[in-house]
Amino acid sequence: MLEKVSQVVLLKDFYGPLLTAKQQEALNMHYENDWSLSEIAASMNTSRQAVYDLVKRAEGILQDFEDKLGLVARFQRTRQNLDELKLILEDSKADNPRLNQAVSLIEEISALL
């Protein structure tokens, strides 16, 4: 379950602005604020079933964007490759200032992601 929450939040970070305001709000309340569907329904003055449908539809839209564009997968691969590269350089850097500089650049790039 935690993995699904992280995945939806990550998808929302990338593609959230492409959702309607109502879809964004429902996902925020459900996944980031940990509200139940009933709590969201009360807040939005609608039924629990309507909120369920809204959340499921928004999740599907986010997944469709990822299936077509692959930005989250590319981001995760880039992050993983940078982490691995950093480990390789740290293992071999010793007192080489250029390798130390390379490690610093990797850390700077990773912080931007």
Describe the structure in your own words.
By secondary structure, the chain is mainly alpha-helical. The chain folds into 2 domains: 2-69, Winged helix-like DNA-binding domain superfamily/Winged helix DNA-binding domain (Arc Repressor Mutant, subunit A, Orthogonal Bundle); 73-112. The chain has 6 helices and no strands. The chain has helices spanning 2-15, 21-32, 37-44, 48-69, 71-92, 97-112. Helix 1 (2-15) packs across helix 4 and helix 2 packs across helix 4 (48-69). It is elongated, with a radius of gyration of 20 Å. The mean pLDDT is 91.
The percent range for helix content is over 70%
Rounded to an integer in angstroms, the radius of gyration calculated over CA atoms is 20 Å
CATH fold topology of the largest domain: Arc Repressor Mutant, subunit A
Strand content: under 5%
Total of helices: 6
What is the N-to-C order of secondary-structure elements (H for helix, E for strand)? Answer: HHHHHH
CATH architectural category of the largest domain: Orthogonal Bundle
**Oligomeric state of the chains in view:** single chain
Mean pLDDT: 91
Provide the structure class: mainly alpha
CATH class division of the largest domain: Mainly Alpha
Count of folded domains: 2
Distance between the termini: 25 Å
Work out the number of β strands: 0
Shape: elongated
Give the biggest sheet. none
Question: Which stretches are poorly predicted, pLDDT < 50 over at least 5 residues?
Answer: none
Fourth CATH level, the homologous superfamily of the largest domain: Winged helix-like DNA-binding domain superfamily/Winged helix DNA-binding domain
